[in-house]
Design brief:
Helix content is about 25%, strand content about 30%. The protein is an alpha/beta fold. The chain has a nine-stranded mixed β-sheet, with helices on both faces. Strand 7, helix 4 and strand 8 form a beta-alpha-beta unit. Bound molecules: adenosine-5'-triphosphate and magnesium ion (MG).
Length: about 450
């Protein structure tokens, strides 16, 4: 005996609720609660008792070699982030905002693999095969015969084609354009995206063919459709950056087969995406060293230290409320730093407009960049350039203290490698030789 019940699901965080509401009580997003198809409620558990027992097996009898990266994608940045390449039968989601370069990146991967004699199937949904072909011919002179496409967006057909053709890699561009009969509604809605991803992932597991699903990201930075997509797949990659800048960062948000510490900095031009082998050089390229309002900070991207120029512009606010704008930086972090600088470092900005920027279009999330931002703001307020051969790192606390950050040795090594003579940072257990290390306990001390 089964009874059915209605469930309302939030498309943003996937929380379920028995009642509809305008705002999700779990994540607070408005207008994201949608009706989910009725799901059966199990009333009788007798059949569980009656089922025949499953077969228990020993792990020691398993061959784990099938879950090691065994398909190097021939695209250096992707292999670096994946820890060697794609695992057989794995499902990878490549997420990114529109125009970030997802199709470009996967076209490059497809071309490189096909040139090495691998069979690649590109499922076109978002764009027509002719548009994809145009991109391929922009990226290379000859498109190999082993790169083929399927112009069909029915998930059952795509899964069956993967099972029949058994390519070395299947790319589905994008998951939001695929539909299945098992779910209701239009392509891209929560139930469709969920059901299609599950169906295609099953096909990958069954055949051992690795698949890459392209996922659109909404303006709020969420992967469109359900967050549950992140649970369905083995790996979630994110391609991020500022569309107006050339630099993109490819990072793993989730990776069942390896670490999520590696990131790749990529440069986008008409010939596609190229790995930047020395990101710090590229990021500091256009720096005007003697400018007031500029400071170089060492931040971490995964485990990789990067030097980035942080800039601040401070001007009188006039009669209106002061404006605070952050570009590539967390706006609330900027406001907190301004309050700490006012209260604990004697830098008055209450009547000033403050604009802060991470040069190069990167998004700086590491709190270790706090001190460099504070140094840029202090330099802008005093209209005095910082020493061009000095770099900064350290997290700033609410009482004005300078807090230790992760991997200080790696940051200092990168600062020294880039030719800086001095580093201002929190106190260290073992300060390295070869560079002047100015260790400070407070932000006031660091900026003096
Ligand atoms: N001819 C060209 N020369 C240089 N850059 C180009 C050219 N055509 C496209 N691009 C770049 O490629 C970007 C689009 O890349 P791509 O189509 O791979 O992005 P996407 O992430 O797949 O986007 P969508 O989500 O819309 O499918 C454009 O924003 C542009 O910067
Ligand atoms: Mg695309």
């Amino acid at each position: 005996m089964t009874k059915t019940s209605l469930v309302y699901v939030c498309s943003n965080c996937d929380a379920q609720s028995p009642k509809w509401s305008g705002r999700c009580l779990s994540c607070g997003a408005w207008g994201t609660i949608g009706k989910e198809p009725t799901i059966p409620e199990v009333q009788n558990t007798e059949h569980i008792v009656r089922s025949t027992p499953g077969q228990i097996k020993n792990f020691s009898e398993l061959d784990h070699h099938s879950v090691k990266p065994n398909l190097a994608t021939a695209f250096q940045g992707l292999d670096l982030v994946l820890g060697g390449g794609l695992v057989q039968g794995s499902a990878t989601l490549l997420a990114g905002e529109p125009g970030m370069g997802k199709s470009t990146l996967l076209s490059q991967v497809a071309l490189a693999l096909a040139q090495g004699g691998k069979k690649v199937l590109y499922v076109t949904g978002e764009e027509s095969p002719a548009q994809i072909h145009l991109r391929l011919t922009r990226l290379t002179q000859n498109v190999s015969d082993t790169l083929s496409y399927l112009d069909d967006t029915r998930a059952e057909v795509v899964a069956a084609t993967i099972e029949a053709a058994k390519p070395d890699l299947a790319i589905i561009d994008s998951i939001q354009s695929v539909t299945t009969e098992q779910a209701s509604g239009e392509a891209g809605n929560v139930s469709q995206v969920k059901a299609c991803a599950a169906l295609l992932t099953q096909a990958a597991k069954k055949t051992g063919v690795p698949i890459i699903l392209v996922g659109q990201v909404t303006k709020d930075g969420d992967i469109a459709g359900p967050r549950v997509l992140e649970h369905v797949v083995d790996t979630v990659l994110s391609l991020e950056g500022d569309k107006l800048h050339r630099f993109r960062i490819l990072r793993a948000i989730k990776h069942r087969f390896g670490s999520t510490d590696e990131t790749a900095l990529l440069d986008m031009d008409e010939k596609g995406l190229k790995v930047i082998t020395d990101p710090s050089v590229a990021l500091l390229d256009a720096r005007v060293a003697a400018a007031a309002g500029s400071a170089v900070g060492a931040m971490l991207e995964g485990r990789r230290p990067l030097l980035v120029e942080l800039q601040a512009l401070v001007t009188a606010a006039g009669y209106s409320a002061p404006v605070r704008k952050a570009n590539g930086l967390d706006a609330s972090r900027l406001n907190m730093l301004l309050a700490v600088l006012t209260r604990h470092a004697g830098i008055q900005v209450y009547d000033k407009d403050v604009f802060a920027n991470a040069a190069g279009g990167l998004s700086v999330r590491d709190p270790g960049a706090d001190l460099a931002l504070a140094a840029a703001i202090a330099s802008a307020v005093k209209n005095q350039p910082n020493d061009p051969k000095t770099a900064f790192f350290g997290e700033i606390g609410l009482t004005g203290e300078l807090r230790p950050v992760a991997l200080p040795e790696l940051r200092i090594k990168e600062i020294a490698r880039m030719g800086f003579k001095t580093v201002v940072c929190p106190t260290l257990k073992n300060p390295p030789a070869g560079i002047e290390v100015v260790q400070c306990k407070t932000v006031r001390e660091a900026l003096s």
